[in-house]
């Protein structure tokens, strides 16, 4: 919603730039897709490493005290 509002303001202030943004936005989105996929992959790798590193603590029964306080 905020993006649409900003685009409408840009359309009122400088319509050629707004139309250029409207045409180029799908191309920018396509160029950014590989970077998003790389980010998702790294996030998954770090989650896996964290799960592997904390597995011994979970097996031994460690419980986080902050979780108990919240309940």
Write up what this structure looks like.
With 71 residues, the protein is mainly alpha-helical. The chain has one domain (2-70). Helices cover 89% and strands 0% of the residues. The protein has three helices and no strands. The chain is elongated, with a radius of gyration of 23 Å. It starts with a helix and ends with a helix. The mean pLDDT is 88.
Q: How is the secondary structure organized here?
A:
Elements: H1 2-13, H2 15-59, H3 65-70
Helix pairs in contact: 1-2
Structural class: mainly alpha
Beta-strand fraction estimate: under 5%
Biggest sheet record: none
What is the straight-line distance between the termini? 36 Å
Number of helices: 3
Shape: elongated
Give unreliable regions as ranges. none
Structurally, the number of domains stands at 1
State mean pLDDT (0 to 100 scale): 88
| Secondary structure: number of strands | 0
Helix share of residues?
A: over 70%
Cα radius of gyration in angstroms: 23 Å
- SSE string, helix = H, strand = E? HHH
